[in-house]
Design brief:
single chain; alpha/beta; globular; 19% strand; 39% helix; binds magnesium ion; binds adenosine-5'-triphosphate; 316 residues; Rossmann fold
Length: 316
C-alpha cells in the first residue's frame, strides 16, 4: 500500500499480537464467510443490497447465522432499513451482543449506541477505525455463516480499515447505477479491491431502468447496459440488475426489505438471481450450509418480519 502502513490503518502494532487483535482473529474465525458491499459513489443502493442479501441468505440458513456490520459511521442506515431504529446492543457481564432483526439477522451499528436519532458522529479517521475494530473484536457475534459489511461510499478510511482488519474477506460486491459518472468511480472501487488482494465477487447494477407500475413498460432513466459492459471491460462478473421501483424505496423507509414484501416483483426476481450467483461464489470457496425451510421461516408472519418477543424485551 503506497505510503500507508498497516499500523496506521488498523491501529494494531506491527509484529505484535495485541489482545484486541487476538480477540478479533478468534471472533472472526467463527464467521465462515465475509462479504463487503462497496461502491464508488454514494446513494446507489449499497445498504438496500446489503439488507436484502442478508434476508435472502437468512431465509436459507439456520437461525442466527447471518450478520450485518453497518460500517457506515456517519450515515448508518441498516437499522432503519431493517425496522430496527431505536434498538440497542445487548450488553451483559459476559459481553456485548448484536441486536437481532428480522429472521434472526444479527446487526451491529453505531446507530445502536447514539443517544438520539439526530446525534451526528463527528469523528476523524482514527476514531472511526477504532469503532470498526471494536465492532469486529469486542462484539460476541457467535458462529455465523455469513457476515455482510455495509460500507459508506468510496474507498476511504472505513473501507480500508475493514479490508485490512479482515484480509480473509471472501470478496466485495460492488454496487453501481447505469451512468458513466458512476461507472468511472466503480473502476476505482475495483482497483481498490485488487490493490488489497480482495476478490471482486461481482457488480450489481441498481436503479437499472424504471418499470412503470401501471403498464409494466421499462423506461431507461439512465443509460442502458453500461454496468455489464464495464464489468466485461474490467474482467469482473456482472451479477445482475435491479430496476428502479418506488416500492423498494417505500419498503426501505418502512423498515421492510423489499424481497420480503414484494416477492413476485421483477426487482425481487432479479435480486434472487443475484443472491444465487453470490451463493454460487461462496459455495465454490467452501461449504455454505443452507436449510430449505428452517423452522424460524415456517413460523414467521406473512411478511416474515415478526421478531421474537424475547429480543424486544432484552433490547428495550
Ligand atoms: N432500485 C431502487 N428503486 C427505488 N429506490 C431505491 C432503489 N435502490 C435504492 N433505493 C433507495 O435509494 C436510497 C439510497 O439507497 P441506499 O441507502 O441503499 O444507498 P447507499 O448506496 O447505501 O447510500 P450511501 O452511499 O449514502 O450509503 C434509499 O432511500 C433506497 O431505499
Ligand atoms: Mg448506505
Amino acid at each position: 500500500m503506497g505510503g500507508v502502513s498497516q499500523e496506521q490503518h488498523t491501529g494494531f502494532k506491527r509484529g505484535e499480537l495485541g489482545e484486541q487483535e487476538k480477540r478479533l482473529r478468534e471472533r472472526m474465525g467463527r464467521v465462515k464467510h465475509k462479504i463487503a458491499v462497496i461502491s464508488g459513489k454514494g446513494g446507489v443502493g449499497k445498504t438496500m443490497v446489503t439488507v436484502n442479501l442478508a434476508v435472502a441468505f437468512a431465509k436459507k440458513s439456520a437461525p442466527g447465522k447471518v450478520g450485518i456490520l453497518d460500517a457506515d459511521i456517519h450515515g448508518p442506515c441498516v437499522p432503519r432499513m431493517l425496522g430496527m431504529k431505536g434498538d440497542i446492543l445487548r450488553i451483559s457481564p459476559i459481553g456485548a451482543f448484536p441486536a437481532t432483526g428480522p429472521l434472526g439477522i444479527k446487526v451491529v451499528s453505531i446507530d445502536f449506541l447514539l443517544p438520539s436519532q439526530e446525534t451526528p458522529v463527528i469523528w476523524r479517521g482514527p476514531l472511526k477505525m477504532s469503532a470498526i475494530r471494536q465492532f469486529l473484536s469486542d462484539i460476541t457475534w457467535g458462529e455465523l455463516d455469513l457476515l455482510l459489511i455495509d460500507l459508506p461510499p468510496g474507498t476511504g478510511d472505513e473501507a480500508l480499515s475493514v479490508m485490512q482488519l479482515l484480509p480473509e474477506m471472501d470478496g466485495v460486491v460492488i454496487v453501481t447505477i447505469p451512468s458513466e459518472v458512476s461507472q468511472d468511480v466503480v473502476k476505482k472501487a475495483v482497483m481498490f479491491a485488487r490493490e488489497l488482494n480482495i476478490p471482486v465477487i461481482g457488480v450489481v447494477e441498481n436503479m437499472s431502468g424504471l418499470i412503470c407500475p401501471n403498464c409494466g413498460t421499462r423506461i431507461d432513466v439512465f443509460k442502458k447496459g453500461g454496468g455489464e459492459a464495464m464489468s466485461r471491460e474490467l474482467g469482473v462478473d456482472f451479477l445482475g440488475e435491479i430496476p428502479l421501483d418506488p416500492r423498494i424505496c417505500e419498503a426501505s423507509d418502512e423498515g421492510m426489505p423489499f424481497i420480503m414484501v414484494q416477492e413476485g416483483s421483477p426487482a425481487a426476481k432479479s435480486f434472487a438471481e443475484i443472491a444465487e450467483k453470490i451463493w454460487g461464489f461462496l459455495s465454490e470457496k467452501g461449504s455454505v450450509e443452507t436449510e430449505k425451510h428452517p423452522e424460524h421461516v415456517r413460523n414467521m408472519d406473512k411478511n416474515g418480519l415478526r421478531r421474537e418477543a424475547d429480543d424486544k424485551e432484552v433490547n428495550a
